[in-house]
What does this fold into?
Amino acid sequence: MIILPRHKLCIITPPHTASRHLHNALCTPKHGGIYCIGPNPEGVADHHYTQRCSEYYDFKRVLIVRNPLDRAIGLFLHYEWACQNQPLTIDLHGLNWNNFTTALLEDNPRVSWLYRYTISRLVSGDTYDHIIKYPDLQQDISNLLGCSIEMEPAYHPPNIAKEWYASDSNGVAAWFNILKWSKEDFFSYFPEDWPATL
It folds into this structure.
């Protein structure tokens, strides 16, 4: 979570919505953002904290969202990276793309909440004053603050959905898995993209 006292805003950044880039951009002397951490669903403190802070309870709340088909690819790429670079943080190693999406759909507890939780599940029961979508993130945050923000480049080139979901039978199976896993996210934040086509 990023708290912006000057603007009376709290920005909630679920996993793989450019959260770290946004924290780095706003938690600076220029913007005065406060890098707020708190317990995640597994009880470990991190920057994906979503709960209201009593001191800033009246601040407007901003939620960053990302199309579930695109976000799932980013989550899998992070899973692969973590398996290689932070192996002790991963309980279930060696999942391929189809197995990974199946684990999300089945809510396999051996896969971290970081991957399994949809945005709707993470922020369940809360309300937001602004919903900002990932593709327009930098411009929309700049508009909201009334000044430009500079963000670091993305970690990898934009995902091409057809390469992941339409290349073979495993990709098609992954597509169905993600549609079922993230149906609430589509209906809440991307109704214009449902039913999702490639």
User: Anything to note?
Assistant: DSSP finds nine helices and seven strands in the chain. The chain has a mean pLDDT of 93.
